[in-house]
């Protein structure tokens, strides 16, 4: 509970309860209920109806995720879901799942799935663009961890770039993690980045000289010392 409160204070709107694929987390309802009782908005990260159903009954408001494998169960949950393609490297099955959920009036967000560098990053960004144009009014989500967690670089710059992309496409939800050390401040970075890119896109101004909070590796200005100053130090 203390960690959830810390993440909320850093800017998280939802606390995502993860489950291990291949196993059924028997205590998921207890975890969700405790978080909800403490005032948190909770999502459950599972494809397994045996985990999702008790989590939703305990108060989870969002399910990550739904595809053809569990779409038939989704109308019974009574909450919003995130829709994934059946094949994360393509959009296979996405339209069919969206259609089935829409016919049952299940609220949804679409996540075409971001791929890591070297495994189809450019094509995955195109999928987000494609889905936005096919579903101009749909809520969308991007999970950014496939870049921030899987790239040997400090996460702040990646977060700003991806959230700028999301802002321009009207993608209003992101899922982030901060497991690996170089991404350990990703929640706070995303909270700062979303404000910066919102300002830039809405006002049509460069995201420069607005907020220095995400300039983490370099000084914004390098002081110059003339010969006189160097002589005084000698």
Automatic annotation (TrEMBL):
Residues 1-198 form the Pterin-binding domain. Gene3D superfamilies: Dihydropteroate synthase-like. It comes from marine sediment metagenome. SUPFAM superfamilies: Dihydropteroate synthetase-like. PROSITE patterns: PTERIN_BINDING. The lineage of its organism: unclassified sequences, metagenomes, ecological metagenomes. InterPro entries: Dihydropteroate_synth-like_sf, Pterin-binding_dom. This is Pterin-binding domain-containing protein. GO terms for biological process: pteridine-containing compound metabolic process.
């Amino acid at each position: 509970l203390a960690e959830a409160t810390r993440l909320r204070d850093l800017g998280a709107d939802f606390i995502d309860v993860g489950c291990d694929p291949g196993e059924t987390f028997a205590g998921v309802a207890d975890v969700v209920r405790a978080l909800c009782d403490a005032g948190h908005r909770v999502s459950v990260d599972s494809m397994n109806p045996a985990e999702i159903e008790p989590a939703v009954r305990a108060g989870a408001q969002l399910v990550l995720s739904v595809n053809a494998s569990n779409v038939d169960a989704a109308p019974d949950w009574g909450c919003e879901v995130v829709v994934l393609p059946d094949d994360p490297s393509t959009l296979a099955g996405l339209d069919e799942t969206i259609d089935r959920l829409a016919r049952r009036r299940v609220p949804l967000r679409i996540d075409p799935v971001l791929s890591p560098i070297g495994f189809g990053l450019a094509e995955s960004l195109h999928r987000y663009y494609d889905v936005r144009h096919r579903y101009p009014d749909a809520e969308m989500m991007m999970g950014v961890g496939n870049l921030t967690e899987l790239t040997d670089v400090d996460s702040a710059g990646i977060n700003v770039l991806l959230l700028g992309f999301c802002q321009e496409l009207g993608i209003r939800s992101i899922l982030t993690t901060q497991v690996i050390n170089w991404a350990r401040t990703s929640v706070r970075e995303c909270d700062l980045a979303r404000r910066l890119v919102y300002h830039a896109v809405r006002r049509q101004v460069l995201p420069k000289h607005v907020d220095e909070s995400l300039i983490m590796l370099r000084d914004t200005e390098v002081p110059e010392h003339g010969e006189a100053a160097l002589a005084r130090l000698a």
